[in-house]
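Give me the fold.
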Amino acid sequence: MKTKIMNVKNVVLASAVLSLFSGVAMADVKIIGKMEGGLQRKSNVDGTHLNGVKDFGSEIDFSGSEDLGDGLKAIWQMNNNVHLDGAQSGDTFASGDTFVGLSGAFGAVKLGHGINAYGDGYWKANFFDVGDHGPDRGIGGVLGLGDAGGQKGAIKYETPKFGQFNAAASWAAGEKGSGNTAGNTWALGANFEGANYGLHAGYSRQDLVSSSTPLTNVGHATDWVAAGKVSPLDGLTLAAEYNRSTLSATAGALTGTSFVVPADPAAQKSLTLFAEYKPDRFALRASATRTNNYQYDSDKRRTEYVLGTSYDLSKRTALLAEYLRSKVNSDDRASNELVIGLHHNF
C-alpha cells in the first residue's frame, strides 16, 4: 500500500511540474529522456547466475533558460532516473545531474550536484549498458565512496570557448566536518575539439575522512585522466582513456566503506581502448580495459572486454545486444553478462 501511495504522489508531483511548463514558458523548457531496457543473463564470480529484466539507465530530464538581457541567461537542469525493472530506490526527482546557474560572455557558473569538472567517460563508443564503464578510477570508483562532486552540493565554473578549447573547475562540499575533515573535493578539466578528433584532461582530489567520531582526516585520494578520440573514416571512431589513481598511505584508517586499503597503496593505472563503426543504421562496438594495481594492490590486475551491436529502427529507436567479460586475477572465475534489449529516446 505504501508503494502505491508513493507512486500516486509521484504522478501528482510530475503533473504539477509539467503544468509549470505550459503556455509561454514552454518555449524556454526542454523535456528529453530515454527509455531502455532488456533481458539480462549474468554469471558472477562466485558461480551464481542472474536472469531477468534489466533497466539500462532510463531517465527523464528537464532543462531550461531565461534571457536576462545583455547576454546574460539563467540556466537550469533537472535529471531524473527511472527504472523499467522496478528498482525504484533511486527514482526521485533530481536524482541525476541537477543544477541552476548563470551563463554569459564570461562562461557559466552552476550550483547543484553531479557537476564534477573531472570529466571521465569522455567518449565511450555509445555503448548502451554493459560497456559503459571505461577505466577504473579511485574517487567515486573502487574506493566504494561516492565522490563529493556527485553526491553533495557543488559549484562549477565553465569557461567560454576559446576557439576549440574550453575548461572547467569545480569544488564540492563533503559536508562532514570542518577544514580538512569536511571531505571536500575539487576538480579541473579541459577539452580541445577538432574537426575529426578531440582531447580531454582532468584532475580531481578528495579529502578522506573517517566516519567515526571525532572525525579525523586520513589523507586524500587523487585521480588523473587523459583521453582522446579520432574519426579517420566515415562511421569509424577510435578512442583511448587513461586513468591514474593514487591514495595516501595514511588512508588505511579510512572507515565507512567495505574497501580494505592496502598497507602500502600502489598507484592504480587503468587504460581503456574504444572503437565504434556505424556507417548507417547498423553499428558495431568494442572496448578493452586493463587495470594494473587494481584497488591499489600491486598484486591485482583486472581485464574487461565488451562487444556490442545495435540496429536503428528509426532516428529514436534501436535494437541492441551487448556482452561483457570481466576478470580479476585473484578470482577463480570471470564475470560475464549478456543483455538484449530496446532503446528509445525522446
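The chain is about 10% helix and 50% strand.
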